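Deliverable D4.2, example record:
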Amino acid sequence: MSISQTSAGGLLLCRAEPATVRPAATHVLRERLVLAPAGDWSALVPERHPAAGASGAEESLAEVLTGWTSALAVGGNWPVLGVWWESGESGFALASGLRRPVSYGWAADGTPLGDPDAMRTLTARLGLDPVLDLEELERLTRPDEAADGGTRLLGLIALLARAGLALPAGLAPGERADRLREAARVAPGAEALEWSGWRHAVRAELDVVEDGPLGPWLRGPRARLVGAAQVAAGAPLMLWAARRRNSGWLTAGALLVAHGALGLAYDHARRTT
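Output generated by the structure prediction step:
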């Protein structure tokens, strides 16, 4: 399979499971996306043509995908690989945390465009074999009259199978953007993501915290018991300290009452939302 000279599209490939990718993709990119499992990875497909830009201004696919890749990587602690293809040209951008992103591309006739050291960085950040896998990646940076830009990008995706990438059927570089979206929507385990505003974003973050080890102490019977105990202990302590004009114990009692009351109020508010 080769990439058509008229097709255009892009994918964001995250080396993390969908449950981990979902909050970052929703709240960082604030785009309508389809999220689908892809082996040990997750694939994100934009619902609109990426070159339109968030403000409506026309940008190249490479610019938009590189920006999204960098933003998404900062929002998580896993590598993100953005791949794009347009008019026979193709390329990728790799970002991981706060480290400098790297990118590489190929012209329609397969001419390499970029620093070959990008393949070394790709190998290191994705944990690929530094000898065998790197050798195959470096072949993609050398002149080859039999390989056009699309063929080289497909070669990269095929090699990433060794790192656990398994794209769903129809979700591969070379497809038109509309077909890519359709394939993503019907992929097993796929879900639509859409930014729903700051209120829902804060609620989602609270849900994540409450699902963690601190959850029982923030909400639920245990949290209510602790909050009530703090108020019960702090109130008499404040009265005792006030009679003796002991500012230190008065502050301690006030903190206990405030902390307990805040915990009870938080639990009540979350139960009623």
